Amino acid sequence: MTDEKDILAAAVEKEYSEGFVTDIEQEFVPKGLNEDIIRLISAKKQEPAWLLDFRLEAFRKWQTMTPPEWGHLSRLPKIDFQDIIYYAAPKRDEDRPTEIDPALMETFDKLGIPIQEREVLAGVKSKVAVDAVFDSVSVNTTFRKTLAEKGIIFCSFSEAVRDYPELVRKYLATVVPIGDNFYAALNSAVFSDGSFCYIPKGVKCPMDLSSYFRINASGTGQFERTLIVADEGASVSYMEGCTAPMRDENQLHAAVVEIIVEKDADVRYSTVQNWYPGDSKGRGGILNLVTKRGICRGEGSHLSWTQVETGSAITWKYPSTILMGNNSSSEFYSVALTNNYQQADTGTKMIHIGKNTKSRIVSKGISAGFSENSYRGLVRMNPGAEHARNYSQCDSLLIGDRCGAHTFPVIRNSNPTAIVEHEATTSRISEDQLFYCTQRGISPEDAVGLIVGGYAREVLSRLPMEFAVEAQKLLSVNLEGSIG
Amino acid sequence: MENLLEIIDLHAGIEGKEILHGINLTVRPGEIHAIMGPNGAGKSTLGAVLAGRPEYTVTSGSVSFNGKDLLAMAPEERSWEGLFLSFQYPIEIPGVSITNFMKAAVNARRKAKGELELAPAQFLKLLKDKMAFVGMKGEFAKREVNVGFSGGEKKRGEIFQMAMLDPVCSILDETDSGLDVDALRIVADGVNALRSPEKAILIITHYKHLLELITPDVVHVLKDGRIISTGGMELANKIENDGFEGING
Amino acid sequence: MDRIYRVGIDEVPKRLTLNEQEHLRLTFIVMPGVSAEVPFEIKIGKAGVNLEIFGLYLSPRNEQVRFDFTVRHLVGGAHSSQQFRGIVGGSARAEFDGLVYVEQDAQKTEAYQENHAILLSEGAVVESRPQLEIYADDVKCSHGATSGYLNPDELFYLRSRGIPEEEARRMQMISFISPVISHLPEELKEQILSRL
């Protein structure tokens, strides 16, 4: 008779299907990091002086800082920051400077990312505007004209610096200051491209916006910067996806995302993170060390984070919200799956400053193989946060007896009218559940996928439809890799 | 007629403790067998062993099902072969809807048989038909598997799944326990409607109420891990009057 | 075995290791006026151990209280539960650090931990860091932490029955802390209740 371990172990090895490399001519800056490199990146992007100054200031700060070591990430290697190429971009065809290279089109096509509007208009893909970023540059941003008719700006970060410098200056680094943390400082110094999005007053964005990040070149890191501003009464749903080739080396991804939500505005930010996780022996994979933070600045504003984290060798990520406006609210819904030797330390911070602010945290961690999966969070009720409320539910699911599941919340309450509730549980897939499913004819591998999908449903159901399907698939695929 | 299920000298137990001490039982297509017995007789163990519950170990004996070695099969293979166990305590699977659960089960079986997956419209029709069959309303399909179900709903849910999967041999493990008269009637109607000359049913029960509604062809008394007596409905009546104490092998 | 420690009065051990199969109940009480750090680490090295920890902190003025508790399940098959309740007012500050650690292969561990606090005033601060660090899969572990205030509906209910507000509030506090004091000797219980 099979026991549970055999059943789980019987799951088949599955390839990371996004792990291909695009053969394309690219230009690089020299390896390493110093002020000259930063000047070079800035010059390549033809940036204004203020942005170069911003970068240099960040770099000087960064030099005085040390990498944070409090994460439960024993496999995070010591990163040699001088051994990384900080800028890599596909070479433009001199004769046809405005056209997208066919190799890039093919790449994004293979990844299922519609970087051309006609695919969407033909009804092949659901209606979503995409900013596709390949290594250090944005390849194309679709539906800009359609969006512009409503006054919405959606473009690459570089273009925003060129075309809307005042807006960028007004908001850049207002939520994540340049010296916020080691990796945010690094990003502020060397960030290459990313997305910029501005929804003007009272405008409901007519389609989902999305950024897709692709690492291709070897020996590089990706340092994108995303800035989303929803002005008064505006609303937008924004999605982010990412993949990278399979390589034995680790590659660094240190992004910064800032979101500003003004009075009565609503931003829903979803991520399906599928960076290359390394192989079953723990070789290679992306080091995903990112800072994401939003501020609910105006009264009645709302920001929700939904993340499905299945990739990366290391994940260090805490999408957070500063609830400044009275009656503002925020949610953090997360599924983090780690398998093999992956390690994830992820969670959120909810900082309640305004009155009647509300936040909700739902975190579902799934650990398999030899992985480590930690929830780390902070809920802070400041003295002025009258009648603020938070509810947190953090569940861990263990699959196999060689993985770890941890919960490290901090709850700090300084207001006698505020209520904070936190609950955490740890469980595993029970033999009864597996047997029940198999008795009904469902194979053990499918049963595990089904049960995990059910476990994560509360989070998955928050994702836009197409994303949810994708996320469910990713959960199953990532579980299939050598469990037990 | 070919035997559908043939159990020969089956010894089995759990955690090193033998519970079944040599079961012999033959079931032919179209037959309904009742297995009665006091608590701890090994009734549920028999159902669990036949369905391949991993915690149970078979120490000796054989079971053939459709002429195949049942004990060599994984639980899902037994299911694909047409064996269905209605659980005494149906298991909760949070977050998984009845629809998705059944879709996975129905299509896994079709795949195993080399058939194409059911088209969504076909599947939904099947689902609706079978729900109507057990008197379940539309929202039932969206509910999470057994989560928050009342005792009666759980049992009815099992009969619904049985109807969906259309097994050739169903084992109803104490499906009547904890049901009121109305719920019992619904379950019995469901089972009766699923009777056919090709199919067999094994009813594991403590009481004869269900047997009055689903008349068995054969009644066995299981005690201390052995079948000590076999007869017809009169055996069930005798137990009802005299208790299990009065039955001797 | 039942041990009660009145922090600031009794000597409180910092470390304990349980190598015998036993049922141990520990209660830590911090009375009003007492500021203290209470570091405590207990290792469970034997299956069958049943450990119950109760903690009470009453800090209505300007006390500084910090619990730093670690329960380590080194072997499987043991049970631990921790239940802390506190009422914090004035400009007092109460911190709770509680780690439940379950070693690899410590299967069939059951470990529960809860810290609930009531804040009575502006200026008071409660900080909870309940932590689970788990390396075995066949376990039942949970923690919960809340921070809030006395339920106004409850208060209204009591007052609508004719109980004066002050008395009603006191009753609410008694009800709130009762899970951690109900097992204590009458005399001590009275002593605690008289300080509410």
Q: If interface size is counted as residues with C-beta under 8 Å from the partner's C-beta, which chains form the largest one?
A: A-C, 35 and 35 residues
Report the biggest beta sheet of chain A as strand number plus sense, adding barrel if it closes.
11 strands, mixed
Q: What are the secondary-structure elements of chain C, in order, as H or E?
A: EEEEEEEEEEEHHH
Q: In angstroms, what is the radius of gyration of chain C?
A: 17 Å
Summarize the biggest pleated sheet of chain C.
Answer: 6 strands, parallel
Number of helices of chain C: 3
Oligomer: heterotrimer
Q: Helix segment count of chain A?
A: 13
Describe the structure.
The complex is a heterotrimer of chains A (484), B (249) and C (196). Chain A contains 13 helices and 23 strands. With 484 residues, chain A is of the alpha/beta class. Chain A is globular and about 65 Å long. Chain A starts with a helix and ends with a helix. The mean pLDDT of chain B is 91. Helices cover 35% and strands 29% of the residues of chain B. Chain B is globular and about 55 Å long. Chain B has a six-stranded mixed sheet with strand order 6-9-10-3-11-12, sandwiched between helices. Chain B has a four-stranded antiparallel sheet with strand order 2-1-4-5. A two-stranded antiparallel ribbon of chain B has the order 7-8. Chain B is built from eight helices and twelve strands. With 196 residues, chain C is of the alpha/beta class. In chain C, the strands form two sheets. Chain C has a six-stranded parallel sheet, with helices on one face. A five-stranded parallel sheet of chain C has the order 2-4-6-8-10, with no helix packed on it. Chain C is elongated and about 55 Å long. Chains in contact: A-B, A-C. The interface between A and C is medium-sized, with 35 and 35 residues.
